[in-house]
Amino acid sequence: MDLTSILADSSVVQPRRTSSNPPSIAAASPAISVAKLPSPQISTKPTRKRKRHDPKPIWAVLEHEQVDLPINGHTESRQPRPLQTPVARAPPPPVPSYANGRPPHVARPAVGPTARELTGWQRPITDDPYVYDEMVRRTCDFIWNHVVEDRALRTAVEQSPGAEIEIEARWGQIIDLSTGRRLVSVNETECVIRQDVAAGTKFESTMSVMQHKKMNEFLNEQVGKSKNTPSRTDVNYKHTKEVDMFYDLDQAGFDLLAPGVREIIARQQHRQRIRVTRDMKTGQVLRKIIKCRIGNLEISSPLTEWDYRIGINVEISYPGPLESLKPVIDKDQTIATSERKKDRMSYSWLSAYQIDLTQVVQGTNKNHELELELDAKTLLKTTEKMDMQEPPPNDYEALVAGMLNNLRVLSREMTT
Fold first, then answer.
1. Residue 173 half-sphere exposure, CB side, CA atoms within 13 Å?
2. d(CA 315, CA 145)
3. How far is CA 403 from CA 85, 375, 380, in A?
4. Shortest CA distance to 37 belongs to which of 191, 184, 193?
5. Which fold has domain 134-414?
6. What is the distance between the alpha carbons of residues 261 and 252, in angstroms, rounded to a whole number?
7. For residue 351, is it left (φ>0), alpha (ψ between -120 and 50) or beta?
8. What number of CA atoms fall less than 13 Å from residue 84's CA on the CB side?
9. Pick the residue with more confidence: 104 or 298?
């Protein structure tokens, strides 16, 4: 948990960028002052009128409601399902009293609490107890469409032992490809970037060594506070050192994969690689993974130094041997300089979230990354337990809201 040895290593060059496109080592630092950003250019193109009412998402529809859902460019009507007979519930147990006025520490459930009910002036004229958050709902829709409703993805995972769906959020910056600088627009606050705009950008995930150190200290502090505060759930810490090497997936290896996996790979627009991860100390092979991207959601946060990318991926465990595979070695590189050495500190809690703070060294380049993973199994359990007779907020929505809250809290902590 001490970064002294890392910071003392002066033989390694300044941080490099890791992006969705080939890295540019000569690019400027991502920690750009707002004062230095160019004035946003206002588009003269006509904008679409905002619909008077946003359609209710499928995961928020009650069993007795009839809704019109846009499907493949046209609208289909979903008929209401018959209401289930409610099950009689036992009366709540009496509230216990405690000698010191505070209950003993009890582990919280696997997902966070639902949204706080609005009271007083916060309630709208309709007296609704909840008003949905647009950012949370847009993210809920994105994850629902790319995970819960993607039958091909679910089939691929079911057919492949060890396969996992990955829901990962990264801190970084959305870079405008036309200017080479951080994307600026008409928004002054956090917003989801439209897909047509995101197509002209790339996402770069990196931070300075001092920001890495500051985040390490902040997260370590949260571990200590969680252990000493009965009302908080425990934050667990793990430190790992691993080495990644990439190999090309050849035709023989492709033929070993399950039919559902081959279908997922066929969606991709580039050749797939196998990432082999070994223990840095023993050299033991820990994982052989084919990682396929399913979809990305870009979120701009101009009031901080960091934007976010929420990515859905599927990680397939490669079943074949490594001996016949060809390692991926770039021009003017060797096997040694092509290895990615990862020094990672992980912080997990509620069996739902894990933050990874990682230093990556490849050759003479060093990069620092911050990622948040939402446990897909926990998320899918919330969808199975959803009571369609009760309106949102539900555990699914609360779990996604918790992911966004963690992105915001850590981003503000790092912003100078």
1. 24
2. 18
3. 34, 10, 15
4. 184
5. mRNA Triphosphatase Cet1; Chain A (3.20.100)
6. 14
7. left
8. 9
9. 298
CB 351 within 8 A of CB 378: yes
Whose CA is closest to 322, among 291, 365, 278, 361? Answer: 278
* Average confidence (pLDDT) over 123-147: 93
**β-pairing verdict for 181-182 and 353-362:** unpaired
**pLDDT reported for residue 205:** 93
232 near 112, Cβ under 8 Å? no
What phi and psi, each to the nearest 5 degrees, are found at residue 81? Answer: -90, 150
Cα 11 to Cα 7, 14, 355, 361, distances in angstroms:
10, 10, 28, 12
The Cα 91–Cα 408 span in angstroms is 39
Cα–Cα distance, 367 to 360 (Å, whole number): 5
Q: What is the mean pLDDT of residues 281-290?
A: 96
Strand duo 340-349 + 236-248: pairing: antiparallel
Q: Please give the model's pTM, rounded to 2 decimal places.
A: 0.73
Mean pLDDT of 81-109: 40
Residue 389 pLDDT: 60
Whether the pLDDT of residue 203 is over 70: the answer is yes
Total residues belonging to the chain: 416
Residues 353 and 375: their CA atoms lie apart, in Å, by: 6
Instruction: Of 99-103, 217-221, 394-398, give the lowest mean pLDDT range.
Output: 99-103
Tell me the C-alpha distance between 338 and 283, whole Å.
16
User: Alpha-carbon distance 296 to 135, whole Å?
Assistant: 15
Three-class secondary structure of residue 348 per DSSP: strand
Tokens of 318: 């490669």
